Amino acid sequence: MGRTKSSSGVQAVVERLTGQKPCPAYLRHAANKYLDSSLFPNSRRSEAGRAEKLANKEAELILLNALKLDEAFRGETETVAKIIQNELDPTELSRTIDDTQREINRRFEIYSYWREHFGTLKAILTDRQVDFKKQRLDEKLRQSQGQSPTTPPLPFALRAIQNLETIEERGRRGRWSAAEYAEQAEAYFALKDYAKASQKARDAITVEPNHARAWFIRVMVALHQRNRAIHEMQRQQMISEEVAEPMSAHETMARELADEQASIAASFHDDLNSILPKALSNWPRATRWQFEHADEYRIVRDIFIDQAFLTAMNGKRNAPSREVRTLNGLGPIWPSKHFPLFASETSDIKPELPQHPFSEDEVTLLRNLITERDKYRHTFFNVLGDGLLARNFKLLHLRWILQLDGYEKHWQEWSEEAEGYAPKRFEVEILHNRFLSRLWQSHKVRNTGSYAVHQTLNNWYHSINERNNSHSVDVLLDQYTQLFHNSFASHDYKTCFETAVLAEKYLKPSKLARSRTHHPDLELISYTAYSDTYWLYLQAISVVSAGLAEEAVNGQMLDCLLTASTLHEQFRKDDTWQWIEAEFYEEGGGDEYPVVPYEIDLREKRLWIDALTNQIAFSTVDQQEKILIELRSLEGSES
């Protein structure tokens, strides 16, 4: 004979309160869930302990209200408990109710669509002429919809709702597991409810910090939210520029909406960047080296590589520009009034290398990605995708910053790949990029010397010119300007001279001779890149600087120095070699004025005389005679 049911037991109380007899299992489970919650603060979770909690009428009323709210709020135990205990402020309570109402309305609309179209579905299924091996059911339903006022739901929306309801039913029996939260996140993601999908993914991560599926949904939500905001920003910009009448209210509104979406996109982008390391480290895997959702993994991974590279280029928060340059191996900054020397740079004390700006999680992930790249070198990046050359170079540079093993081999492999690609791709991805072109030169000089930079640029130029590229000279002169500038800051005057000579060789008669170009390394400086006088002046600067530094010069450099009087006179009469520096005022506006390149004014005789005089000790008898003749010529020329 079975045990007699107690009239004060949980089941009996629920039956009496709800009128449901015998008590359904789902009601009993829900009652136990709330009896074990904060609504009934008692540590005992046994049947006897629960019965004690129901010993008074107030407790029964609380339980009955909890069961009713549980039905409306889809088993959200904490939400129901907070409502009954008045722990939600009016604003939060109103938002919670509105969210729940929207969710019920959404489900009602999805069920209503199917209720309205089940007759159509029946007609299609009973039509023997329909062959489901050759025809799509969704298209047949769409064609049969006609003028129905009901908006079709998202594909498989009903399936997502049914999955949610299954999980919610399990939640009525107790707290959800991380896997159940993740399932809900996935369902909301399918319904394009990104806010709820993100929250459910966060709930799963709270329960299980390394839950792979939850991190995947969370990063996918962040990516979709960012992309959607960017798309809307671009749409509003297009409206303001191409649709709206100029100076109209329509144009003003479109611009304001574009600015608003830009701010939203920036916020979503920051959120995306903050979760990239954890999301990638916990990405769902089929095997140790095989990822699920491989296409999405590559997209997110490449975003992380781009972001890590940008972090490296910016350095730590508020890091001075010198520290950032040192971190990225860009060498010394040419000292000027804008960048005076540090005390450590004028002493024999070698400055400490700056620390990298990455977190421990970011370093671990970068190590793993580099290991993965080494293991699957030919398939790591999408060979047909845009930016392959640039992104591989970014990973190479990050490897160098972190001083990880394998840098030299990685550089050699990248160089071979870069030279094997179409020259246009090398130009677009590397040479046209302000940051990558500087870093490429730096790595090239570090590994194979300045001559290799000259050789690579020369090969690229002749290869691209066979395709009649009119912009190749622009790119080449920009690269030579960078190389000259970095070499001059490093006091490598021989490379400076050779670079300026090569640049002059590529100049052709042009109307651009007096046009000015922004200097790639000096923000406020412009120069006459197409002027042969400018590049001649840089040759002369290189020679004079070497002479003043008491370095021996020979060959073409000495020949240049032995034309001192001629060059001195030429530079006095033709000032196209001068830089133009821009100055902007705080109150608005600005001005421009000429400045001497690298603060070496070759119109001053004394510079030439000292440089020539210092060469006498390094010269043969014949060379000394030529130097003395040039000195007399300089001293006798017009002041």
UniProtKB/TrEMBL annotation:
Gene3D superfamilies the UniProt entry points to: Tetratricopeptide repeat domain
Official protein name in the record: Tetratricopeptide repeat protein
Source species: Rhodocyclus tenuis (Rhodospirillum tenue)
Keywords: TPR repeat
Lineage: Bacteria, Pseudomonadati, Pseudomonadota, Betaproteobacteria, Rhodocyclales
UniProt key word Isomerase: no
UniProt repeat feature TPR, residue ranges: 178-211
Top-rank taxon: Bacteria
